[in-house]
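Quick question, first post here. What does this chain look like in 3D?
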Amino acid sequence: MNQGAEIICVGTELLLGDIVNTNAQFLSQQLAQLGIPHYYQTVVGDNPVRLKRVLAIACERSQILIFTGGFGAYP
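> Answer (accepted):
Ran it through. Tokens below.
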């Protein structure tokens, strides 16, 4: 059964370490303050095929999906 929330951060720059993922930190803190459990954080690059796979997995295991980031400068 789906439960809790999952944060999905999209961006190749996150995978390359070009920027620190402060969005996930902020969202985690906010979910905790709201009393919403979250058991997964996923980072996926700017790739539609991999993003679709991540979405399918997240839908199976989490009730709330929160996306941050998006397709950036990296192909």
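Residues 48-61 form the longest helix (14 residues).
The chain has three helices and three strands.
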